[in-house]
Amino acid sequence: MEGLDFVQLRTLAAVVSEGSFEAAARLLHVTPSAVSQRVKALEETVGQVLVRRARPCVATEAGAPLLRLAGQLVLLEREALTDARGPLTGGGARTRLAVVVNADSLATWFPAALARLPEGLELSLDLRQEDQDHTAELLRDGVVTAAVTAQREPVQGCRVRRLGAMRYRALAAPALAAAHFADGLTAAALAGAPTVVFDRRDRLQHRFIRTLTGRTLDPPVHYVPSVPAFSETIRHGLGWGLVPEQIAEDDLASGACVDIAPGRQVDVPLYWQHWRLESAALNGLTTAVRAVAAEALR
C-alpha cells in the first residue's frame, strides 16, 4: 500500500482548521487548485472521501484519524525543529495548540492556567468553546489537541486526567424567587418559572429540574450564549439558572441574587483529555491546567 504524504496531510489539516480550500491556500501560500489536488490525491490513496465540502469544511469519519495524525506530526515537527536549531538561532516558530474548553471554565479558572505555563514555552493557542458534554467530539474528530470535558472515558489515542468538579448554584433575582418559588421548588413552580439556558446543547438546568422533581418538565427558556450576559439576565429577573460558584458568590454577597435551592448545588466533574504524545508543549500545558484546576475546582 502506498504511504501517506506529509504535505497532503498538512493540507488536509489546513482545510479543516481554516474552514475552506481558499483559506487553507492562503495559510499555506499556494493556490486553491494546489490545495484541492493535494486533498484529492490523499483521498485517492486512502480510497475514502476525507473532507465534507461544506461551509465550513469538516472532516468525514474517514478523515478524522488522518486529521489527528496530521496534527500530531505538525506538533512534533515544530518541536523537533526548535530543539535542533537551539537558542542561538532563535529556535523555531511558536508551537500552535488547539484546545476546546467549556464556556464556564473559560470564563473562570482556565485563563489562570495559561498564565501558569512554564517560562520559555512559546505557544500560540487556538481556544475553542463548546459545552462540556460535547467538547470531546472535537478531540475525537482531530480538530483539537486537548479538551476540558465532562467525558470520563478516554477518546481513542488520548489520555484522560480528572481535574475536579465545577460547582453550580441555582440563582434567581429576589423578586423572581418571591413570585415563583414562595412555596418552594415544586414541579408546578419549576414548570412555570422561566429559566436561563446557555444554548440548545446546554441541558444542565433541565437535568437539575428532573433531579428535583423526578419529572421531565418544559419550562419557558431564555437562550443566552454568553457567560456575562447569562448572569446579567438572571440578575435582571428574567429567569433563574445554574451559575458557577466562582461567579455566584459575588451576586449572593451583594444581594443581587438568592440561592433558590440551598444545599442542592450541582457538581459537574471535569476531565482533561489530550493526545497521547510526548510533547514538551502539551506536557507543559497539561501541568499548568492540572495545577490551576486543583486550586479552583472541587
UniProtKB/TrEMBL annotation:
Domain of life: Bacteria
MF terms in GO: DNA binding; DNA-binding transcription factor activity
Pfam families, per the entry: HTH_1, LysR_substrate
Gene3D superfamilies from the UniProt entry: 3.40.190.290, Winged helix-like DNA-binding domain superfamily/Winged helix DNA-binding domain (1.10.10.10)
Entry keyword annotation includes DNA-binding: yes
Ranges of residues in domain HTH lysR-type: 4-60
Keyword Transcription regulation applies: yes
Keywords: Activator, DNA-binding, Repressor, Transcription, Transcription regulation
PANTHER family: HTH-TYPE TRANSCRIPTIONAL REGULATOR ARGP (PTHR30579:SF2), TRANSCRIPTIONAL REGULATOR (PTHR30579)
Family: Belongs to the LysR transcriptional regulatory family.
Protein name: HTH-type transcriptional regulator LysG
High-level lineage: Bacteria, Bacillati, Actinomycetota, Actinomycetes, Micromonosporales
